Amino acid sequence: MKIGVYNSLVDKKRNGKKSFAILLDPDKVDDGALNNVIRLAVESKADYIFVGGSLVVTDHLDGCIIAIKKQTDIPLLLFPGSPSQISKYADALLYLSLISGRNPELLIGQHVISAPFVKKSGLEIISTGYMVVDGGAPTTVSYISNATPIPSDKADIALCTAMAGEMLGMKLIYMDAGSGAKKAIHEEMIYSVAQNIDVPLIVGGGIRDAEKAYLNCKAGADVIVVGNAIEKDPSLISEIAAAIHSVPVKV
């Protein structure tokens, strides 16, 4: 019996196992690059593949996902930047609500529009409290969302936002410094949030090396997401995967 994606996330958190997710933007990978990344993902035993981006301007989202699914059974989750980024070929959808911002369209407005299509997709829907944290530079997500990121030194704001998201019923909390961030989220902020929520915590943005991924896991992240750094240097996949999977399991 196939376990659901969300159940796998919860089980890994319960057992203290850290996970590595590779983020792929359909606009930025050609067939050759995609095949190479998927090969490395399989070899390094990556746990998840996220597909999407703040802007998906091409029309080959379905084709990208189908190509990935032909090569691996690694769970594939949509990480959409808009309601139009839906593909029935994925395994699950991170249904993002931007709980760190004050833009009603991204908090609930676009969800109202997309709900009928999402419902019909047959995807496993995972409600996700999405929190954008200042990564030291304007990012695509901050520009598109028209929302001010949480200041990088305000762990208390991040903590209270995450707690509110969990109490509102979000199944995941996703803290993101954004694509193009100059710096990753501080371990102090990750630790503060992780110690006060029970749902799995995803962290991404600005993570460029294995050491940072390891430290973020030690601080309490359950899933580390890396995209930009891998686009520039796919060989990082094996290093980052090994670092994340080497984090001692807490009992």
Q: Which helices and strands appear, and what pairs or packs with what?
A:
Elements: H1 5-14, E1 19-24, H2 31-43, E2 48-51, H3 61-71, E3 76-78, E4 92-98, H4 104-121, E5 124-132, H5 140-145, H6 155-167, E6 172-176, H7 187-194, E7 201-204, H8 210-219, E8 223-226, H9 228-232, H10 236-245
Parallel strand pairs: 1-2, 1-8, 2-3, 3-4, 4-5, 5-6, 6-7, 7-8
Describe this protein's structure:
- The structure is a single chain.
- The chain is of the alpha/beta class and 251 residues long.
- The chain is built from ten helices and eight strands.
- It has one domain (5-245): TIM Barrel.
- The protein has helices spanning 5-14, 31-43, 61-71, 104-121, 140-145, 155-167, 187-194, 210-219, 228-232, 236-245, and strands at 19-24, 48-51, 76-78, 92-98, 124-132, 172-176, 201-204, 223-226.
- Helix 6 (155-167) runs parallel beside helix 7 (187-194).
Named at the architecture level, the CATH assignment is Alpha-Beta Barrel
Percent strand: 15-25%
Q: Sheet bearing the most strands, described?
A: 8 strands, parallel, barrel
Task: Provide mean pLDDT, rounded.
Answer: 92
Helix content: 40-55%
CATH class division: Alpha Beta
Q: Which homologous superfamily in CATH is the superfamily?
A: FMN-linked oxidoreductases
Order of helices and strands: HEHEHEEHEHHEHEHEHH
The helix tally amounts to 10
Rg over CA atoms: 17 Å
Number of strands: 8
Oligomer: single chain
Structural class: alpha/beta
The number of distinct structural domains comes to 1
Straight-line N-to-C gap = 27 Å
